[in-house]
Backbone:
């Protein structure tokens, strides 16, 4: 064996030994891997809306469901499965305001049927509820439903009156609160054979409404859900004999 081969073998041995020493040193510095098991968060079943519930709509068992909710995020106003009877008691309740799907149901957002504040919960703040007895001829053929917007027309006197019994618009864009005892805006009925229609008016408007109801005939005209593109579309055909009152201002 010549000298060059011996030198090459020596270098290889030294390099291998150095690599082995380095590997041992690195193994000493590597920290052992720790496996941390996730902590299981405690949860409670909370009653939520399984579909959108509109203001004035009655709650049903099908419209609510129990879901797991983190216990640390449960508020005192939530309805939990610790009181399972609470779900059945809500079947006859009415929503005070919109409850979206997945939102926890709280007592502050519902009114029970036996409560005296059922209609009061549906009225907008500062407004009043007035009722008008109607027929299909005076209520757009019975196609007026809760949540619709109507105009109120007044026909006073008769043949001997100054205006000759002409109809005039008293109030525009009035919200319908209820038809008979139906409060829901999402009723499945295409029309309701109405007898009593409950309307929402401002305090001064309600006084004018009651006075007109006793001195003449009132009719309801159903408005479109779509707004006209220009103001003229809603007013260009209005007669000079028409007097319009908007929120108490003529």
Residues:
């Amino acid at each position: 064996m010549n000298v060059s081969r011996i030198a090459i073998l020596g270098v290889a041995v030294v390099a291998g030994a150095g690599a082995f020493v380095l590997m041992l040193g690195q193994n000493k510095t590597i920290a052992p891997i720790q496996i941390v098991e996730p902590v299981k968060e405690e949860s409670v079943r909370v009653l939520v809306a399984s579909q959108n519930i509109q203001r004035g709509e009655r709650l049903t068992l099908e419209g609510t469901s129990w879901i797991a909710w983190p216990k640390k995020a449960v508020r005192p106003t939530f309805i939990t499965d610790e009181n399972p009877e609470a779900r059945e008691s809500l079947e006859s309740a009415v929503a005070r305001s919109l409850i979206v799907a997945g939102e926890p149901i709280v007592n502050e957002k519902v009114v029970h049927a036996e409560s005296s504040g059922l209609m009061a919960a549906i009225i907008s703040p500062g407004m009043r509820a007035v009722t008008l007895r109607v027929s299909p001829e005076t209520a757009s053929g019975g196609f007026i439903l809760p949540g619709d917007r109507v105009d109120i027309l007044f026909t006073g006197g008769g043949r001997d009156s100054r205006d000759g019994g002409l109809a005039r618009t008293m109030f525009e864009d009035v919200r319908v609160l209820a038809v008979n005892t139906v409060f829901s805006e999402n009723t499945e009925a295409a029309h309701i054979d109405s007898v009593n229609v409950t309307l929402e008016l401002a305090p001064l408007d309600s006084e004018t409404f009651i006075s007109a109801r006793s001195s003449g005939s009132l009719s309801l005209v159903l408005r479109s859900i779509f707004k006209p593109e220009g103001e003229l579309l809603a007013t260009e055909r209005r007669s000079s004999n028409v007097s319009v009152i908007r929120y108490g201002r003529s």
